[in-house]
Design a protein that fits this description.
Carb-bd_dom_fam9; carbohydrate binding; mainly beta; Immunoglobulin-like; Carbohydrate-binding domain-containing protein; 213 residues
């Protein structure tokens, strides 16, 4: 089972926007999203994430380099997984249900909760505290690939099915993904490898450990 160790980001209470904490996350360990259980294309993106937390939020920075990008969906809880998309799933304790947060390369996102594919989309009032910021760069060393970075703040209050006051010392279960159903080169990459016959991220039995130090 894969494990990610998540460090407390000192001084991050003053970093109120994703853009401000993005550089601080650069010092955290980088984890690759490169498990290709369902090979479909010769052209695959490169994706990674760094994660930290503070007294109020989980902080994540995704970095993606890919040939094609798509950001058609612009409204909360749109099917952003059809676009150039990264995802974060997390379960607390021994719960069978878990939260899924999915973001396209424009920062549009959906948020859900439930067991397996029985998802309850969280209302806008629950998801609105999430903040995102996107940066695009030309990947000079591998033209014509495009490099995009997504910084995300997920406040504890977003976990509306739980009363999360602190994550210090807790071990959770979760996974991170990169996908793009409607891209010219569809792909389904994971951090913690999934074993299934067809693409399906909603298999919590394959979650890795996320340890908040």
């Amino acid at each position: 089972m894969k494990e990610a160790n998540v460090l407390f980001l000192e001084g991050s209470e003053s970093l109120l926007s994703p853009g401000k904490f993005s550089s601080a996350l650069a010092a955290q360990q980088e984890y690759q999203i490169n498990e290709d259980t369902w090979p479909m294309q010769d052209i695959l993106p490169k994706a990674s994430f760094r994660i930290a937390y503070n007294d109020r939020s989980i902080l994540i920075k995704f970095v993606v380099k890919e040939r094609d990008i798509r950001s058609k969906h612009v409204y909360y809880n749109d099917p952003v997984y059809k676009d150039s998309c990264v995802e974060f799933f997390i379960a607390f304790g021994d719960d069978k249900a878990y939260y899924n947060f999915e973001f396209n390369c424009a920062g549009t996102f959906l948020a859900g909760y439930g067991e397996g594919r029985q998802r309850e989309l969280l209302p806008f009032s629950a998801g609105s505290p999430i903040e995102t910021e996107v940066c695009f760069k030309q990947a000079k060393e591998s033209f014509p690939d495009i490099l995009w970075e997504l910084s995300v703040v997920i406040p504890f209050e977003v976990f509306v099915k739980h009363n999360i006051r602190s994550l210090r010392g807790r071990s959770c279960r979760g996974n991170f993904f990169k996908c793009g159903d409607d891209l010219p080169h569809p792909h389904y990459l994971a951090w913690s490898r999934i074993q299934a016959d067809s693409p399906d991220f909603h298999l919590p039995q394959f979650f890795g450990l996320i340890n908040f130090k």
